[in-house]
Write a structure and sequence with these properties.
alpha+beta
Length: about 250
């Protein structure tokens, strides 16, 4: 028996119309900042720099996420104005990640800060925010409805039983967050700046690659665009984990 799937794209709050997706993206960002600030206080890191960096991460993330989504799904947009309606859903995680990483890197280099130190600081916040954002995908962005399935956990969508991969992503990200949060203070992590960030990239690339096997996204040479990026991420992060010089 298939599970029923219900989306809650928006609801009324007095005169206001609340978009589920936009609301959870906002909550995700606020939760991420809260966690990053909490960790910065613990490590005695300059909070002004954390707030500034959070701003650049937000701007780069939104722009990168939307641009990547539009490029991949340009045929779904009826007009130019639709491109800017990000509150209705349609953000690519990898595009957002690359956009945020680029602006964060520029800021960090301009301020002559340690990139790997701040990458580790923001890693748990990034994963928690990503997990919360997936709730928005489930409720207001179609749940990333995937391929047909006969599995008992498939969801009935438009008369067909399909994978709703946003659920898989949410569970995976919560487990990944718990794992990273538990190891962030381990001796190995503290002695190898950047290792927490690299472990995240390495682990996420594996999990997301598997999840994408159940999605119905366009493929190129048998893989989605995201999966091709994941292969590069897996190889690069694995190489750096093994060969990155240790902190002296």
């Amino acid at each position: 028996m298939a599970l029923p799937y219900h989306s809650f794209i928006s609801w009324k709050l007095g005169p206001l119309t609340i978009q589920s997706y936009g609301m959870f993206v906002a909550i995700a960002f606020l939760a991420g900042i809260f966690l990053a600030v909490k960790e910065a206080k613990k490590r005695k890191i300059n909070l002004e720099q954390v707030y500034d960096l959070s701003f650049y991460i937000l701007i780069g993330g939104i722009i990168g996420a939307r641009v990547a989504h539009v490029i991949e799904y340009w045929h779904n947009f009826d007009g130019l104005i639709d491109i800017f309606k990000i509150w209705q859903g349609g953000l690519s995680f990898f595009g957002g990640f690359l956009g945020a990483l680029l602006l964060a890197f520029v800021y960090i280099k301009a301020k002559k800060l340690d990139f790997w130190k701040y990458a580790d600081l923001f890693t748990p916040a990034l994963v928690l925010g990503h997990a919360i954002g997936r709730i928005g995908c489930i409720l207001g962005d179609g749940g990333h409805v995937g391929k047909l399935t006969t599995m008992p956990w498939g969801f009935l969508v438009n008369g067909e039983v399909r994978h709703v991969t946003a659920y898989y992503s949410f569970v995976f990200l919560i487990l990944l967050f718990v794992f990273l949060y538990k190891i962030k203070d381990r001796k190995f992590i503290k002695e190898n700046t950047g290792s927490l960030f690299l472990i995240y990239l390495f682990t996420y690339s594996i999990g997301r690659f598997i999840i994408d096997l159940f999605r119905a996204d366009p493929t190129y040479a048998g893989l989605t665009i995201t999966q091709w990026f994941l292969i590069v991420t897996f190889i690069t992060s694995g190489y750096l984990l093994i060969n990155k010089p240790k902190k002296k």
